[in-house]
Amino acid sequence: MAPYFETVKSFTDVPVTDAGVDTITFLEAAQGVVNLFDLLGSAAFAAVQNDLKSNIAKVRARYDAVPDQSGTLELLVENEKGEKKRTATEGLLWLLRGLAFTCKALQIAQANKSTELSTAFSESYSATLKKYHNFVVKGVFAVAMKACPYRAAFFDKLAADPAGGPPVPQEKLDEELDKWLAALDSIATRLQTFYDSNDYGKGF
């Protein structure tokens, strides 16, 4: 088995055209974020993982039900707008929020190599998800932040080859992670703008 970023679909491989963001490859790449939390090694992040999984499933269910109207995420949302329960639209919105939280945390960690993950995730939470959460959920996330592993241990896991091969050099890992994060950031920003400009997030 290869090191982490060779085992998951990269956001750099998600087709983005004038028509929109390809639905299936985006969901495959989003699953890579779910798996990333396994490397953090804390049960405290189970709530984050479950939320991401649930929202991926909602979008996938919509695609499976009407694939001809769901080839891109934008098309999927547009074709659901007249329905009473916009389950996939809400699911995608919360998925984007969770992805933005993860992306920003790792960008903060990448920008300053001395920043521990607990600090990076706490700063990201304040900037992304916190405003959408009630008191109880904020408490759950506060626990999760404190349970973050040391950054060195996490990055060692990202670089490691579970089959026992040599780890990825730090320079190569940074290069792959930065590309992955830049692509995720670009897609998440594009879709959030799409939601905001069309009021698709209203009520959620």
- Per DSSP E runs of 2 or more residues, the count of β-strands stands at 2
Number of DSSP helical runs: 8
| SS class | mainly alpha
Quaternary arrangement of the chains shown? single chain
Name of the CATH superfamily: Glycolipid transfer protein
CATH architecture: Orthogonal Bundle
Biggest sheet: strand arrangement: 1-2
Portion of residues in beta strands equals under 5%
Give the biggest beta sheet. Answer: 2 strands, antiparallel
**Spans where pLDDT lies below 50 across 5 or more residues:** none
Q: Could you give the topology of this structure?
A:
Elements lengths: L15 E2 L2 E2 L1 H18 L5 H20 L7 H8 L6 H25 L5 H11 L7 H12 L4 H9 L10 H29 L6
Antiparallel strand pairs: 1-2
Helix pairs in contact: 1-2, 2-4, 4-5, 4-8, 5-6
Describe the structure.
By secondary structure, the chain is an all-alpha fold. Helix content is 65%, strand content 2%. Helix 1 packs antiparallel against helix 2, helix 2 crosses helix 4 and helix 4 runs antiparallel to helix 8. It starts with 15 loop residues before the first strand and ends in a 6-residue tail after the last helix. The model has no long low-confidence stretch (mean pLDDT 91).
